[in-house]
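To whoever picks this up:

The nightly regression suite flagged Glycine/betaine ABC transporter substrate-binding protein as changed. Nothing in the input moved, so I suspect the structure step. Input below, exactly as stored in the fixture:
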Amino acid sequence: MTAVKRLLATCLATVLVATGCGLSDGGSVPLPVGPGPDGTVPALEGVRVTVGGKDFTEGVISSYLVEFLLAAAGMEVSDMSSLAGSNSFRQALVTGQVDIGMEYTGTAWMSYLGNSEPIRDPEGQWVAVRDADLEAHDIRWLPPTTVDNTYSFALSRATAQETGARTLSDYARLVQTDPESAVTCMETEFSVRRDGWPGLADAYGFDAATVPVPIMQPGIIYQATATGRECRFGEVYTTDGRIKGLDLVVLEDDRRFFPVYNLATVVRGEFLDAHPEIEEVLAPLVDVLDNEVMVEMNMRVDVDGDDPALVARDFLVEQGLVSVD
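Regenerated output under the current build:
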């Protein structure tokens, strides 16, 4: 991250709206791209756009997907990916310091719009967020992808074979019969959130107090679950690349307890009204992005060590959406 971007992220995170910290000087697109088979979009050629994003692997990759598609359409793109945390990106979008990015429906519904209960139907959740954010902030939500980066528990294949657990209902039965064999690792926040551990126990009808629960940093949980020694089960994000990289089995949320976190493009209303062609440029993401694709891209970064910009560009080239000179 450049010194300018570090300064901007710090300003946003600490004071939210800092009049002395504008985001107009974002960096350029990290890698060059050329137009896709349909060429550039004349109405967008030379138009300046600032793309924002969050500072975790999937957030960075999704930001680059948007940046490359807009650049291939002919826009002058400023890169403000890797802002420090969800609140920084959100505040930058609402205040007009960035124009566009990608966001999760569940995050906006509960964290930004202040709702305490999620809507677990994906379409219903997106519609509710779309309407509420339009009315309150003139933020436009384009149609969502099927990427759903929500919570679940994972286990090694050896543990899955031993326990027969494939769903969270199976996990609940194991807890009820032999809680000591269901050692479950999780991060601190998940252990107290109503859409986390306490609510899960209520929804699936088991006593959370009977389960040994080591608290760990998120990055440690995946490896500890893969070995099966410290963690028989582990809290995971369902599109994390380490799931595939470590050959973990993700339990099905068969009662649909966890909130829906579908990934969708968000745009400032004023900017989209001025440049409506953007929606058509970004529409292909809805068709090509799903959990399997996102896990693969995340794995290339988190497991294989590839550059997220290269991963994003490679994917768009493979899909025939951009070209490389």
